[in-house]
Structures are given as C-alpha cells and as structure tokens.
Q: What sequence folds into this?
C-alpha cells in the first residue's frame, strides 16, 4: 500500500508499495527527524502487523569456518555480513565474531546454526556461547553430538536486541 508520512502537514517521506521503497523528502525533513521502530508507518513499510514491538537484527554473518583464517582475524572467511568487521578463529569449532559498531550493552540474544558440509556428518551441531560476550564481540563454539568441538563449513549467526 502506497502512503505518505506527514507531521504537522509536512510530507516527510513517501512509501511506494510497488517497489517497497521509502523516500525521504529532504526539503521538508531538514530537522533530521527519526521514527521509532514501532511507529505505524515503519510497521506498514515492513509489512508488520499487530501491537507487538519490532526489534531489529543488530548484527549477522554468514562465514566459512573451515578455512581462510590467515591472517587471523579474517575478513576473507566472511561470505556476507551486517555489522560484523571480522571473525577470529580461536581453535577447532571456536570463533569470535567482532562487531563493526558496538552493541548498546551485552544483553542481546544470539541465534546461530552451522553445518559441516555435504561430505561430513549431517547432524546439526549445538551452538554454545563462549566466555566472551561483550558489546564489541561474541565467542561462539560449535559442539558436535559427541560433545567435541568441530569446525563448520557453513556458519550462520544473528544478534537481536
């Protein structure tokens, strides 16, 4: 649904449902106003409904945990990411994710999954948050079904706060 965001009669932004784009009107948005993430206009643009608040993903990364860790920390192991500057290889199945921009605090939630690849065990590893969980980095360990740590070819991780 196309729409216009107005405050005090001034057009601040328009939403085009055909392209799902929000365009800011720089001529009228000279006060650098911002919307709360739970603002009805933001929810409409994100196709979110209901009264529950929206919490954004603050960082995510898709990386290869089996190689490309020279030099360490590595950026070449990262396939793609958001707010992740590098990944450090601490040893077998043990990685530290470094954030490009610090979190507001360390009270975030981590979700992750990994897989060893098609030629290895198909069992999904257990993900354990390591000793380091701060505003600037997070340690993640991938533990196999037999409780041993193992490198994962496909490492996927996201933080919500």
A:
């Amino acid at each position: 649904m196309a729409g216009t965001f107005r405050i005090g009669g001034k057009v601040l932004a328009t939403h085009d449902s055909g392209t799902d784009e929000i365009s800011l009107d720089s001529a009228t948005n000279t006060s650098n106003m911002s919307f709360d993430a739970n603002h009805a206009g933001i929810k409409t643009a994100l196709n979110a409904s209901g009264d529950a608040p929206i919490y954004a993903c603050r960082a995510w990364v898709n990386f290869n945990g089996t190689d490309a860790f020279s030099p360490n920390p590595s950026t070449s192991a990262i396939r793609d990411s958001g707010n992740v500057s590098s990944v450090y290889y601490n040893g077998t199945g043990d990685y530290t994710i470094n954030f490009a921009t610090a979190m507001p605090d360390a009270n975030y939630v981590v979700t992750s999954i990994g897989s060893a690849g098609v030629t290895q065990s198909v069992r999904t590893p257990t993900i354990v948050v390591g000793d380091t969980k701060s505003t600037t980095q997070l340690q993640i360990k991938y533990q196999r079904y037999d409780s041993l740590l193992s490198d994962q070819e496909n490492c996927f991780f996201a933080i919500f706060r």
Observations:
- The chain has a mean pLDDT of 79.
